[in-house]
Amino acid sequence: MKTRSEQVAAHRPHYQDELAHGLARFFEPPRSTCPWCTSPRLRERLRTTNHPQRKPGSFVLDTCHNCGHVFQNPRLSSEGLDFYYRDCYDGLGEATMARMASSPLAVKLYRNRARAMLPFGRPARWLDVGTGHGHFCAEARRLHPSTEFHGLDWGEGVEIAARTGRISRAYRGSFTGLAGQLAGHYDVVSMYHYLEHTLAPRHELTAARTVLRPGGHLLVEVPDPQSTAARLLGRWWSPWLQPQHLHLIPLDNLRGALTEQGFTIVATDRKEPHIPTDLTSAAVNVLNSVLPGEDLPWLPKKPSPLGRGIRALSLLAAAPALLVLIGLDLLLAPLTRRTRLSNAYRVVARRD
Question: Organism's domain of life (predicted)?
C-alpha cells in the first residue's frame, strides 16, 4: 500500500492540471433572487475560504431579507462539486473521516439521533440518506435491533458501509433519482446533516415523501443559520463549511416546506442536535488559515522542510490552548443547548 506522501505525489499532477484552467468553471452564474422564496432582497452574509481542505477559491454566502434563507452565491457547478468533494470523505480524506466518525463524541451524537425515533414506534425498515460510511446506522441498530437499515449516498463510502455490515443494503447515487424505485419502501427516512449539501432541498423532501409509507417518519437535522454562534464567530464558524454547504435553512422555512409536502411536524429540537465543537473548530479554522500548508496535492508543490517544521512546532505550541477549548466546548454544552447558541436543529415529521 502506498504511503500518504506517495498518494499525494500521485494525485498532484492531475490537480495541478485542473487548476491550470482556472476556477471560473467551478461556479455557476450568481443568482439575483432567493432559491427558496424567489425574493430579490439579498445581501451578502460573508466571504470565506475552504478551511478544512485548503483547496483554492473564495466562497460567498448570501442571506435573503424576505425569508432568511442562507445560500452559496454563486453556487458550485457540477465540476466544482466534483473538485471540492474529491478526497474529502473518500480517497485521501477517508482515514480522517473514519477517525472522526468513530470518536466518542460522534458515537454519542449517533445515539441521540437514533433515540429521536423511539417515541414514534419501532420501524421495520429505515433509509439513512447521506449515510457516508454507515457509522450512524451501526450505532442506531443498538437502539433499534429489529430494524433493517439501508443507506444511500453519492460516494463509495456507502458501498464500504455495506461490505462492513453497517447497513444491510447500499444505494449509490442521487436520492431524487432513485426515489421512484424505492417508493413506499420505508418506515423512516433520516437526513442527518445531508440537506444542506443538496442542490435543491425541496426536491429532496419530495423524494423522502415518495419513499416513505403513509404514517412513516422523516428525521432531518441541519446546521442552524440563526444560531447566535454563527454571528459571533463569523467566517470561522465551522457549520458554514464552505464550499460544501449550499443551503442553510431556517427552522420556520423547513417546517413550512414540510407542511406543504404533506407532512405533519411531530417534534422539533434545538437542544440535542447541538455539536459541542464551535470554539475548537473555529480555532482550528484560524490555524489552518495562517499556518504553512501540509502536503496536499492541490497545493503547487510539497512544503519545504522549513514550512513543515514551522507547522509542526506551531501545532505543538497551540495544543494546550486547543485542549482548553475542547474542555470549554464540552463544559458549556449543557448551557449552550438551552440557548440560541445551539448550532443545529432537528425536525421529525410524519408523512400523512
Answer: Bacteria
Of 275, 276, 267, whose CA–CA distance to 346 is shortest? 267
Residue given cell 440563526 in the structure block: 226
Q: Which three cell numbers stand for residue 325?
A: 477549548
**104-232+245-268+346-351 falls under which CATH superfamily?**
Vaccinia Virus protein VP39 (3.40.50.150)
**Which residues in the chain land under pLDDT 50?**
none
Residue 188 near residue 127, CB atoms below 8 Å: yes
Residues with Cβ < 8 Å from 293, sequence gap 6 or more?
54, 299, 303, 307, 311
pLDDT at 169: 98
Q: Enumerate residues 6+ apart whose C-beta is below 8 A from 30.
A: 73, 74
Closest CA to 172 of 191, 158, 187, 192: 158
Please provide the average confidence, as pLDDT, over all residues in the chain: 96
Q: Around 288, how many Cα atoms within 13 Å sit in the side-chain half-sphere?
A: 19
The strand order across the sheet containing 148-153 reads: 169-172, 148-153, 125-129, 186-192, 212-223, 344-351, 263-269
CA dihedral defined by 103, 109, 114, 118, rounded to 10 degrees?
Answer: 140
Residue whose C-alpha cell is 460510511: 133
**End-to-end C-alpha distance for the chain, whole angstroms:** 51
Q: What is the 3-state secondary structure (H, E, C) of 85-99?
A: HCCCCCHHHHHHHHH
